[in-house]
Amino acid sequence: MDLRSVVSLYESAENLGAPVASVHLDTTHDDRLSATHIEHRWRALRDGLAEHGCDEATLTVLDKAVGGVPDLPGPQGESVFAADGRLLGVHTLAAPPLRDHAALLPIPDALALVIDLDHQLPHVVVAVDEHGADVDAFPVSAEQPDTRRTFHGSTLHLAGLLADGPVTGVTRRRREGPWGSVADQVAQDVLAAVREVKARMVAVTGDPQALEALRDRLSPAFSAPGDIPPDLVLVTGGRPSGGDPAALAELRRSVDAALHDATTARHRAALERFRGDLARHRAAEGVPDTATAFARGRATALLLAADRDDDPQLYASATDPRALATQAPALDGDPTAFAGQAGTLLLRSAVAAGAEFSEILTPHQVPDGTGALLR
Questions:
Q1: Whole-structure pTM value
Q2: Are the beta carbons of 307 and 370 closer than 8 angstroms?
Q3: How far apart, in Å, are the Cα atoms of 233 and each of 200, 203, 218, 226, 289?
Q4: How are beta strands 201-205 and 231-235 bridged, if at all?
Q5: How confident is residue 217, by pLDDT bands cut at 50, 70 and 90?
Q6: Based on the number of CB atoms within 10 Å of its own CB, is 364 exposed (0-12), middle (13-18) or buried (19 or more)?
């Protein structure tokens, strides 16, 4: 994935020059006690941040931001960043993080957010019934001012379908009338939506015959030289009416499943490329060699496993993203040097370098679950 969508988070933190509190929390609202459970788990993370020296103004800002979106059906997570009493970003994730955690560092700990983004693709959802069709186009994420909540992936999609939900970044087209009479117009709407967000997947729900009808109409346009056509897939859930929670939850599950299949294939392809480049000495594996590659400006892509329970520490400069070392003395002359988990510090270097990112789905096959492609 392209890491440009998180550049502004790092820039905002750098401009403040204060320690950044990063919070990653499961905010799924699946029963009436969910809000209470979320509050208790947040309080535990809050106490940990306070013990590590987080100022009360920043904790108060986090108090107001944390909690998720109660009206969104299905799983969700949250990544919230604040520093010096200011909110730097609040992001609703399409899936909960692997575990609740919080960190106070000179830089944002954005790995859980990036992992969630890496499981999304720009996509279009076409919902068809006997009364017409809805065409919704969704980018991976829409950058918002720091006081606004950003929604990602299918969570963003659901938010757009809810009556008063946030729809920033979503394009909606609605066609009313029997499918046979609006099919050509819907196909044109789909083409426009695909081009708008550079969609990699078109999910069709409702009448199964609509998928084939759209395929027939879209194939000529998708076969233009140089174009990479999006995948057309049939999903369940139907065309939700009136924000029906059950229909929305079913549609979300099916769109999430289709996105999972598509992104899994992409991750496997990235790992195969990594293995091939490693055989040609054009890749680095393991934390030490990967850190060296970024420190020398040679890395073009970062590959990380999501589960980093046993992540070793690295040492970094708060002012220079390329200054990385496996031993503290290597940065002895830098008064801003600090220690942190390798994944967090490598991600910051990758963002600064304009590198790509991909999750490693099979971490046991790569030392430390860490690697890089080299220029």
A1: 0.88
A2: no
A3: 11, 5, 13, 22, 40
A4: parallel
A5: confident
A6: exposed
